[in-house]
Amino acid sequence: MANAKADAARRPGEFELIAQLFAPLSLKAPGAFALTDDAAVLAPRPGQDLVLKTDAVVEGVHFFHDDPPGDIARKALRVNLSDLAAKGAVPAGYLMALLLPDWPDLDWLKAFAAGLAADQAEFGLSLMGGDTSSTPGALAVSISAIGFVPHGAMIRRAGARSGDAVFVSGTIGDAGGGLAVLQGEAGAQSELVARYRRPRPRLLLGQALRGLASASLDVSDGLIADLAHLARTSGVRLEIDASRIPLSAALRAVWGSDTAAICRAAVSGDDYEIAFTAVPERRDAVLAASARSGVAVTEIGRVTAGEGVVLLDGDGKEIALPRKGFVHF
Amino acid sequence: MANAKADAARRPGEFELIAQLFAPLSLKAPGAFALTDDAAVLAPRPGQDLVLKTDAVVEGVHFFHDDPPGDIARKALRVNLSDLAAKGAVPAGYLMALLLPDWPDLDWLKAFAAGLAADQAEFGLSLMGGDTSSTPGALAVSISAIGFVPHGAMIRRAGARSGDAVFVSGTIGDAGGGLAVLQGEAGAQSELVARYRRPRPRLLLGQALRGLASASLDVSDGLIADLAHLARTSGVRLEIDASRIPLSAALRAVWGSDTAAICRAAVSGDDYEIAFTAVPERRDAVLAASARSGVAVTEIGRVTAGEGVVLLDGDGKEIALPRKGFVHF
Question: I need a surface site. Which of A113, B29, B45, B46 has the fewest CB within 10 A?
């Protein structure tokens, strides 16, 4: 069928590409056989469960055509690692399906692979298998990440109980601010653009929260939207104090810090922070986990009986939100 | 960014879609939490290794826009199961990233999910996690399949030794014949089209070949191209007797059975059969495995010292091939 042939001078063939650029990413995973077999093999680790996650990023949806290829690669990997982080898992490996239109040339692909290599070194995991296919459409990277947790210790979304405190890591809205800058909004802040292009999976924090957080998830659709998922799955209501939602100095410099800015940040996507709950008696342990992992954590609200998420102003009155976060359709 | 909103009357939103159509596919996998968590958890099975594979199918490359949606789903799953089959693995679960343009309506999506449900029942596995994203481009389905094999028993590509016999399951070229029919070539044979749209992963045969096959891989790029992979990885040469390559009656009715037809079949893609090697002394055991699994197996050649794959005519002379199989670019 449509067999998009690239100019051989511009880009090596499929199998050469795999051998030159991707096989080197698999060498620390003996069960990947340097990508020369049909599948990878992974021996179990005694006493450990596997944690499995798949997430795809698509040109024109999750990244821009002109984004640096290394950042596209890292975002594709990190959105998956962020989920492993929220579950308390330690990354082990990943599988990658790469859907390639005609346009990426060899330099682009080398930079893409270099981005993966840098993240593999930073986060301690290896490519275990892949598939490279031509596509008549948008470039897409679909990654499945594999991690380990001690048996039974994965932190679930369901587990928040009335009376728990609600926490969030890092700062909220930075990636949304970066996206706005890329879309032409005034107030260029390279720090915000970097947060949009290169999420920071909070792996050490997530691992430190095992046995401590009663529920946890990663914030990708927007803080309020994701807390709504947690509320629904746990069968509880979450009350969030707007004034406690942590905004970075870089974001405040662009959006300000009034209620409108806070609301906008709370419904922006792509934060890739961890939102979690814990019994208030463990607050000190949460702060110790934060210090140990080097990731700031802010208490932003509480769990009550009921359902849904409400954002409250300084008088405890509900703030109406026009939308809760990003949805694909 | 580009947030393709579908007409709400035409298709439910992202989260409703997951809850209505995809969550039911996960209910037999307790670690999938009905797709309400960030990730799935999978407990190891004592004495078993995991086998991991990812493969994507793309509209306009691996299937046609107008193919039945249930067949698109099944092909996406089966191309992965075929790799598990060739490795001797028993499927356990899969992750799916679905990249959706605007056009699939609710009926299309229901039929797609029904195709997955039918295959889950047939092959004994469950959806364990997924990601649904909008795309401005072609519809694509990226699946990562997870299977189990007894520790150390995965059948590798590297393992063929000089003196081994070469075998292939089923018949070769049927899917290529089906593709030709769909592209307008005369000689409509619905059986061939079915083979193109709906591969048959040879799971029982692959499992029966554990400890018996010295090397194995699935035939997806074309028999000769895939045997070349096996030859390279094993560091051997494969001699294939053209006249022994099994062609179905349906294919012979369209292409005939002369050398040209055999060559065309041997470089057609999408067979999803298993090609494997075994010491000739185990020939009876191979035939018994074939009988036990209900999948025909044909001996088509031998392993010698050297490199590459040659196709030989009745006089033992090499037949020149214009190309070896399908490559993506």
Answer: B46
